[in-house]
Design brief:
The chain is α+β, with helices and mostly antiparallel strands. It contains seven helices and 20 strands. The protein has two domains: about 1-45 and about 145-210 and about 290-345, FAD/NAD(P)-binding domain; about 90-140 and about 210-290, D-Amino Acid Oxidase, subunit A, domain 2 (D-Amino Acid Oxidase, Chain A, domain 2, 2-Layer Sandwich), CATH 3.30.9. It has helices spanning about 15-25, 40-45, 60-80, 95-105, 145-160, 260-270, 315-335, and strands spanning about 1-10, 30-35, 45-50, 50, 55-60, 85, 90-95, 135, 140-145, 165, 175, 180, 185-190, 210-220, 230, 235-240, 240-245, 280-290, 295-300, 305-310. A hairpin with a 6-residue loop joins strand 19 (about 295-300) and strand 20 (about 305-310). The radius of gyration is 21 Å and the shape is globular. The relative contact order is 0.19. The chain binds flavin-adenine dinucleotide. Flavin-adenine dinucleotide binds near residues 318 and 319.
């Protein structure tokens, strides 16, 4: 029987960030993952937008979560000797004068000073981009090349004997008084980070997910060249010499299959503001682990304290995972309370 402090199921953003946060506290961790190419984390564009464009409010807990995310991913760059995390201004293209006016008003509110610029600009070629009402940008937006980071981090786990590439079979769990065994491995706890596939977990299938399928394209343009991210109903993000164009939101169809409708929807939205030929290079889909009350899921199984969950990162896994992994570690190792808003005992 091989012994670990924690077995983590899932090497998406949630499982990876949590695994490293525990390893930093000298915990012996085994990450079990069946490595789906279409996992939400590998499909994600990885954008961290500090504001909610619709209402022009700060994103939930942004003051707390963003500094954690920045430090975490910068540390990963040092650890893995590569670049994954980039600052990128995100321009909002205004649809009409009213929207422009609303932005200007909001940019004068002190709590938004650090997050949105007040200047209305025309930074893009107006022959190639249609935005007669100008644009303005967010401050402190960034993105993580999620798939690159996850691949590199997987190698780090392998080199530290902390990775097993296999489907986790729930039938093999055996609960003992203070520990748990699975498939020849023994641990104090198993922490489930399976993203949307948590709905198949017999111990946690009662958690109220309200899953959201999303599709994203990798594209290139014939003439348009931009260094910034832009948003006008869809986002365009410069990415490895091409662009990510995303994303759709579908609450009815829950699978990771790219669809013609999804592709058409994204191309139509882009055509509303980009007057250029678009070449589609790749098309991917994933399912976001979104929760009914749109808050993460942290905590222990109500009866089996050897089983825990760290999930529910929803549409913002990149920003949320490092802060909440830190809270989860403090809960697991020091007994600090999990905030009621994210504790699964709220259900
Ligand atoms: C189209 C799209 C665009 C997105 N854009 C952004 C964005 O710009 N910014 C942002 O912050 N977020 C974005 N997201 C959301 C983000 O992807 C999620 O918040 C985050 O990736 C969730 O990570 P996770 O680790 O919980 O789940 P997942 O990424 O789904 O990872 C779960 C892992 O567990 C493994 N697993 C599951 N069950 C088992 C089992 N039984 N045995 C072994 N392994 C198992 C899976 O293979 C997978 O590797 C986007 C999502 C989509 C779909």
């Amino acid at each position: 029987m091989k012994e670990f402090d924690f077995i983590i199921v899932g090497q998406g953003l949630a499982g990876s960030v949590l695994a490293y946060s525990l390893m930093q506290e000298n915990q012996k961790v085994l990450v079990v993952d069946e490595e789906a190419a279409s996992s939400s984390s590998r499909v994600a564009a990885g954008l961290c937008n500090p504001v909610v464009f619709k209402r022009l409010t700060k994103s939930w807990m942004i003051d707390e979560v963003l500094p954690f995310a920045k430090i975490f991913y910068r540390n990963q760059e040092t650890l893995l000797n590569d670049e994954f995390y980039f600052d990128v201004p995100l321009y909002k293209l205004f649809v009409d004068e009213k929207e422009q006016e609303f932005w200007k008003q909001k940019s004068n509110e002190p709590h938004l000073f650090d997050w949105i610029d007040h200047k209305v600009e025309y930074p893009f070629d107006q022959n190639l981009m249609n935005y007669p009402f100008g644009a303005s940008k967010t401050l402190q937006s960034s993105f993580l090349k999620t798939a690159n980071w996850l691949s590199k981090f997987k190698n780090y786990l392998i080199n530290n004997n902390a990775y097993l590439n296999v489907k986790f079979d729930y039938d093999k769990i055996k609960l003992t008084d203070n520990s748990v065994t699975w498939n020849g491995y023994c641990a104090n706890k198993i922490i489930f980070c399976e993203g949307y596939q948590s709905i198949k977990n017999p111990y946690f299938d009662w958690l109220p997910f309200k899953l959201t399928k999303g599709e994203v394209l990798t594209v290139n343009f014939k003439n348009l060249k931009i260094d910034y991210a832009i948003n006008k109903g869809a986002f365009v993000l410069p990415y490895n010499g091409n662009y990510k164009l995303g994303a759709t939101y579908n609450w009815d169809e829950i699978d990771a299959e790219p669809t013609e409708e999804g592709k058409e929807q994204l191309l139509k939205r882009a055509a509303k503001f980009i007057n250029d030929e678009v070449l589609v290079l790749e098309h991917k889909a994933g399912v976001r682990p979104t929760v009914l009350d749109r808050r993460p899921l942290l905590g222990l199984h109500p009866e089996h304290k050897q089983l825990a969950v760290f999930n529910g990162m929803g549409t913002k896994g990149v920003m949320l995972a490092p802060y909440f992994a830190n809270k989860m570690v403090k809960f697991l190792l020091k007994g600090e309370k999990i905030a009621p808003e994210v504790n699964i005992d709220r259900f």
